[in-house]
Amino acid sequence: MSASSHDHDGKSSARALRLGLFLAGKPLEERLVRTPREVSIGKDASCTLIVPPTEGLSGNTTLFVAGDKGWILQFGEEFKGRVALGAEPVSLQQLIDDGDAVAHKSQWQLPLSKNAKGELRFGDLKILFQLVEPPPLLAKPQLPSSLRPQLLTTLDMRLLRVVAASFAAHFAFVVYLRAMERPKPPAIEEIPERFVKMLVPKKIEPPKPQQVTKAEAKKVDDKKPDDTKKKTETAQNDKPTTQPKKEEDPAAAAARAAEQRAKMEQQLQTMGVLKMLTAKGADGALADALKNGSSDGDPDKVFREVGGVGPVTGQSGLGSVRGGDGTGQSQSIGSLTTSGPREGVGTGEKTEKKVRAVVQESSPQDLDPGDLDPGQVAAKIRQYRGAMVACYEAALKRNATLAGKITLRFSVNSVGKVSHVEIEVDTMHDDDFAKCIVERAQSWRFPAPKGGGEVQFAYPFIFQSSK
Questions:
Q1: Which of 43, 155, 339, 350 is buried deepest, with most CB atoms within 10 A?
Q2: For residues 400 and 142, what is the distance between their CA atoms, to the nearest angstrom?
């Protein structure tokens, strides 16, 4: 078909694009686009027509664009379909061969006439399109004026009167309060004297220091020492107990610390081996090492002077014992073992109990070999066996005694995709587990049936735990 048969009279720009989508022979959506613009299809949310993932169709594919004189069909060489620009439909490949389609980047563009129509196919998805006269826009329906709600008719008159009366009463009360003469506060002279004493606090004067004359001071000096001492003790007893303590004399503090140190050394001398190690005098083993608290002595030299205890001579031993009637061998730290079990001690951390699930294989039931090969079906299910095991292991963590048989009935369409799954037999009675395996089975794919129609069969699964 030549380009001269196209209708480019300018009226095509006013035509509307009518689209119809069919998935597996069932109507999916109908759309009317009034003005020429870009129309895309795919699974992305930004597409004009959103469809499920389809074979041969990318996530966002542009099918129609706006041209100078109307709609333009945009397609690729791999597209399948037909277009009728006149009386007879022509395939997309023939339009490319005849030169009706114009190359645009990596695709082809075909200007559509005002009566153009056609179809495009992508796997199970079929798209029908047609340029039609746009129907007139319907005016927005409006109610008659007699039925439209009005303010005066919708208001409750009784409530309106109550609100108006309340507003008038409150307004009048505010006006009355503002018009009243406010009393002036009384002056201090008008207040009775007894109230003034209660309101005004009395000022307390500090006591004046007493002046001691020379004659009184001389009399105090002439008094007996005993009287002075008694008065001093009385004054000290009269002082409050909360008076802070005086600072202690450093010499007295040092003497008290030395006394405490001597008592501690005396107690240590009565404590078994410590009595021998901390003995004072010329025979004391640690006298030279300690040197009154000093740490500059040689500990090995000190221990060699003690009979019966020898220093460590190597890294692996604790030293030998000398003296008495017997000798001991040095023992390393590594030779010391616990008397309890040799297994590792738990740290208290929570560990997840591991479970293993076993799903026994079977064969499909109610399956006609003329539609699907039972061996291929069983092989496909063995490939998906891991999904069933995962669901069963998750269920065993909730219920370790869960086991039984579940029979699934599959419905497979003409392309081998599972269109429906339901549970036919269930002896386990676990809703979460049943929901899990049904969701996994809905995504399985089988070989396409030989007859091209939908095929149904049942498949039993036996679940048991492996301990």
A1: 43
A2: 67
> Are the C-beta atoms of 389 and 424 separated by less than 8 Å?
no
SS3 content of the chain, % helix, strand, coil (to 5): 30, 20, 45
* Gap between the Cα atoms of 81 and 91, Å rounded: 6
Distances (CA, A) of 15 to 73, 117, 246: 14, 12, 110
Q: Measure the CA–CA gap between 445 and 399, rounded to whole angstroms.
A: 31
Closest CA to 459 of 447, 441, 445: 441
Contact 129, 19 (CB under 8 A): yes
Which secondary structure element, helix H or strand E, spans residue 196, and what is its range? helix 193-199
Banded model confidence at residue 325, pLDDT cuts 50, 70, 90: very low
User: Is the per-residue pLDDT at 290 higher than 60?
Assistant: no
Q: Give the tens place of pLDDT for each residue, 24-54.
A: 889 989 999 989 999 999 888 889 888 888 8
Q: Specify burial of residue 310 (Cβ count, 10 A radius: 0-12, 13-18, 19+).
A: buried
Helix (H, G, I), strand (E, B) or coil at 176: helix
DSSP 3-state of 174 = helix
In terms of pTM, does the model score above 0.85? no
Task: Please compute, for residue 226, the number of CA atoms within 13 A of its CA located in the half-sphere on the CB side.
Answer: 0
* Unique residue bearing structure tokens 């009355």: 176
pLDDT (0 to 100) of residue 171: 96
Rounded to an integer, what distance in angstroms lies between the CA atom of residue 119 and that of residue 23? 13
Task: Find the helix or strand (DSSP H, E) in which 50 lies.
Answer: strand 49-50
User: 3-class DSSP state for residue 363?
Assistant: coil
CB atoms within 10 A of CB 131: 21
CA atoms of 406 and 55, how far apart (whole Å): 33
Identify which of 303, 273, 310 has the alpha carbon closest to the alpha carbon of residue 286: 303
